[in-house]
Write a structure and sequence with these properties.
alpha/beta, 4 domains, 6-stranded mixed beta sheet, 15 strands
């Protein structure tokens, strides 16, 4: 240790905290330090288990905490700082309390500092808090209890390895959610034990202290396998939400590799199941299709009392436009694309030089799926499920067989699935032609309703991309017609 560093330590205030997550203790001590005018570079925070206990050994100690002057003014901070600081204090970063105090000190002369998103300390605080919130969420999502004992001795035990000091912060969540159970959560940082009335804290544990399995796991695996939806599978997004580091403590994780491997076959089976509901021959006219759609009750949407909305337009159109489903305005008018999203689409089609009157306009799902909002009784749009799209796909295929378009424009993922029979990422495939088995081309872009949900800044960029997609379709049509 250099002489300079020795002198610095001897002049520093050593501030002990009672635990790694002792935010209340930090807050009280930090308040005293600011009132005593002690700058950040003269404060060392001692956190149990993080090496701070021995920092002053052999250095002659450090000076005692100064007492605030009588009648001193307590520090003032915005609520945004306290909310972020309470989360950041749970992080495992050994410099977290020093960061909090440095920001507290700076806020006394710069009250608006928290609004400066470019400031390094403010950005670091936000990152720590965000990471802790994510770890809290992961614990709530991925704790798996296993039962031990039976009868009066029955208890549920779970093992979890948090990245940060979140155990006590999550205690209330598990007490409220599993109030009637007697449970124990074991972690390398400590343990929680709930007997149905009292929550107790315990010492750190090892993985071997938790049970390896129980009789209910096979039932849980069967259930998980049954609800695994191959049509919604996005491996990258799944791994981001459920990183592999958590898999070893989750019994259902053993099923995931096989479920992913078999997803394509299962998705094809779902599509075939939808088609199997139709035993009649393909309709021989668009009028017969419209009549059949009006009477179709093969899925729950067709039984919800809403009026079916058939396709309309030119029966031999070179362009077929497929949306997701009719909305409230379309259901009332009995025509596709007449609501706000449809008006936006028609405006962009006009700018691209595409006449919607010379196209065939239809939807992947022919009825309006909604939920009634009380007390206004307003009908709110709900996305159709993969199963509902796969059932209604028979009608879309029947329309394509009769119209025989050269280009199919799918607006959104639901529309793309109704044409392809599988789910694709719109952002990955938009702007380029995909060949179809009948010789037509499929072009995919976003649904105009997506643009309506964006704020002004985001909408401008996405609307420009949407316009570019339609311009590419218009250029391709000019080549094919």
């Amino acid at each position: 240790m250099t002489p300079f560093r020795d002198a610095r330590i001897a002049d520093a205030c050593a501030v002990p905290l009672s635990a790694p997550d002792d935010f209340d203790g930090w807050r009280e001590q930090a308040r005293r330090l600011v009132m005593a005018d002690v700058p950040p570079d003269r404060v060392v925070w001692q956190v149990p288990g993080e090496g701070g206990d021995d920092l002053f050994a052999g250095a002659g100690g450090a000076r005692r905490l100064p007492a605030p002057p009588p009648g001193g003014t307590p520090p003032r901070v915005p609520r945004a700082f306290l909310d972020l600081a309470a989360k950041a204090a749970l992080h495992s970063d050994p410099q977290r309390y020093a960061l909090l105090y440095r920001l507290l000190w700076r806020l006394q002369t710069r009250p608006g500092l928290m609004e400066d998103g470019a400031d390094d300390d403010v950005r670091r605080l936000a990152m720590l808090a965000r990471t802790v919130r994510r770890d809290i969420h992961k614990m709530r999502a991925f704790v798996r209890f296993r039962v031990i004992g039976d009868g009066a001795a029955e208890r549920y035990v779970a093992w979890f390895e948090p990245e940060h000091h979140i155990l006590r912060a999550n205690a209330a969540f598990f007490v409220n959610r599993f109030t009637q159970m007697r449970w124990t959560i074991l972690t390398p940082q400590g343990s929680l034990d709930w007997d149905g009335e009292v929550l107790r804290e315990g010492p750190p544990a090892a993985r071997g202290d938790a049970p390896a399995g129980d009789a209910a796991e096979d039932l849980w695996k069967t259930y998980y396998g049954s609800i695994f939806n191959p049509a919604r599978l996005k491996v990258g997004a799944m791994l981001k939400e459920m990183p592999r580091r958590y898999w070893k403590n989750m019994p259902e994780a053993a099923l995931i590799p096989d479920l992913i491997a078999g997803a394509q076959a299962r998705e094809a089976a779902m599509v075939e199941t939808g088609a199997a509901l139709f035993t009649e021959a393909r309709p021989d006219s668009l009028e017969v299709i419209a009549a059949g759609i009006a009477a179709c009750t093969r899925c729950a949407i067709g039984c919800n009392g809403a009026r079916a909305v058939a396709g309309e337009g030119q029966g031999d159109a070179a362009l077929m436009i497929v949306g997701e489903q009719p909305g409230d305005s379309e259901e009332q008018a009995g025509r596709p694309f007449v609501g706000p999203a449809g008006q936006l689409l028609r405006s962009h089609l006009d700018e691209a030089g595409i006449d919607p009157r010379r196209a065939w306009l239809t939807n992947a799902v022919k009825h309006f799926k909604f939920v009634m909002r009380a007390p206004s009784k307003r009908r709110l749009h709900q996305n159709p499920s993969a199963k509902e799209i796969d059932i209604c796909r028979w009608w879309v295929e029947s329309e394509r067989r009769l119209v025989r378009p050269k280009v199919v424009l799918a607006l959104g993922a639901s529309a793309a699935r109704s044409v392809l029979g599988k789910t694709v990422s719109v952002q990955q495939v938009r702007g380029a032609a995909l060949p179809l088995e009948d010789g037509a081309e499929l072009w995919i872009t976003t649904h105009p309703s997506y643009l309506l949900r964006l704020d002004d800044d985001a909408r401008a960029g996405e609307e420009a991309r949407f316009a570019a997609d339609l311009a590419a379709v218009a250029a391709r049509l000019a080549q094919l017609v």
